């Protein structure tokens, strides 16, 4: 049994995730090795190395833990309580970073509850909508109740204010809802309700939503060189880094923009450093690896016959894909900047731990899909048992 289970793991997915994380560790060191941060050249590297070891541990646990057990109320209820408690505690002991009250300091380290909230929303919505499959199109009973948790999480993150993460969570939820099996009529009702709810939220948070800083982000991303020293500073320097890399790059560790010109070089803008140092080949490796993980997750979701496993896989794949697009789109000027890390590559413990748990769950879903396929094939491949046929005084056997 154990041998069959181990053979059923998707090692291609595990290898790609591991390679991307190791590549990210190298690039975090390269992007933060200069001392203008006021710390040792290996400060962020050592912290990310610790984060990676912790991530490897939780990845193994998540990959071994049967995903079907997560839809139990004994797991879902504590998860919901911990998620909401973590987001509420921020308003008491939270630390402001990047103009948002997003962090809780635990000793020498910080935790970002909103990162873990992404995974909680995926697990909760997948579990509840999987249970409601028999009446998924009954709007008041099958559609609305699970959204209360989503609305609470969205509001608590939006008021930090962290609109980037709040928006990503809503898009992840939308992907799960669209895949849940509910009809188009109910989906359109949800769109109308969300639109109506966003009006009072926008009014409550109007000072933050329409703050000068955020409006500058919207106006400067289309042409950052109009105000290169102020609102367009980050994006303009990202362009310089990306443009100077060319096809082959300047060489690992040779970036010029990381020498104090490019803010957040080891976090939000790490793709710019990768482009400058490793050129199109480094960027291509990141893009292909992320695309492989996302497409593999969608493939697992489509193959899984269990509604919960299918929604989990699609939700996790959507989260990685959406977050990758938001980070890469912001760094390249396709969309306004939102301060979202690049999955598996950017520096950050909370993000890496959450992604490790998520991909561990994805690997576990894949394992069950492969194991059940092999088990069914083995059963159908077995010869039919011999049947006894009584013919007068003799007994004949035939297959």
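^ Assign residues to that structure.
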């Amino acid at each position: 049994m154990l041998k069959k289970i181990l053979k059923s793991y998707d090692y291609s997915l595990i290898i790609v995730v591991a390679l991307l994380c190791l590549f990210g560790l190298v690039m975090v060191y390269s992007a933060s090795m200069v001392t203008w941060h006021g710390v040792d050249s290996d400060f962020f590297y050592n912290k990310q190395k610790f984060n990676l070891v912790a991530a490897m541990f939780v990845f193994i646990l998540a990959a071994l833990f049967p995903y079907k057990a997560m839809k139990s109320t004994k797991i879902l209820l504590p998860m919901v309580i911990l998620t909401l408690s973590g987001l509420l505690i921020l308003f008491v002991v939270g630390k402001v970073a990047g103009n948002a009250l997003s962090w809780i300091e635990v000793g020498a380290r910080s935790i970002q509850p909103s990162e873990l909230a992404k995974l909680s929303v995926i697990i909760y919505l997948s579990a509840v909508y999987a249970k409601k499959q028999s009446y998924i199109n009954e709007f008041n009973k099958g559609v609305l109740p699970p959204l209360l948790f989503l609305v609470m999480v969205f509001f608590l993150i939006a008021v930090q204010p962290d609109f980037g993460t709040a928006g990503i969570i809503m898009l992840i939820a939308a992907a799960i809802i669209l895949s849940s099996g509910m009809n188009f009529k109910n989906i359109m009702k949800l769109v109308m309700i969300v639109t109506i709810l966003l009006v009072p939220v926008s009014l409550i948070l109007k000072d933050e939503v329409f703050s000068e800083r955020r409006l500058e982000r919207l106006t400067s991303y289309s042409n950052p060189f109009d105000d290169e020293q102020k609102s367009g500073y980050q994006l303009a320097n990202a362009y310089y880094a990306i443009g100077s890399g060319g096809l082959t790059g300047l060489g690992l560790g040779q970036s010029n923009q990381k020498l104090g010109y490019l803010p957040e070089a080891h976090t939000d803008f790490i793709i710019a450093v990768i482009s400058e140092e490793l050129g199109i080949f480094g960027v291509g490796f990141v893009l292909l690896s992320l695309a492989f993980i996302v497409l593999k997750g969608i493939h697992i979701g489509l193959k899984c016959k269990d509604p919960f496993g299918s929604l989990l896989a699609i939700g996790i794949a959507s989260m990685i894909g959406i977050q990758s697009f938001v980070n890469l789109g912001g760094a390249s000027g396709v969309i306004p900047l939102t301060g979202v890390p690049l999955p598996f590559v950017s520096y950050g413990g909370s993000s890496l731990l959450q992604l490790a748990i998520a991909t561990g769950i994805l690997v576990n879903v894949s394992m069950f899909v492969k194991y059940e396929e092999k088990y069914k094939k083995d059963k159908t491949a077995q010869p039919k048992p011999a049947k006894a046929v009584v013919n007068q005084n003799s007994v004949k056997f035939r297959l």
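The first helix runs from residue 2 to 7.
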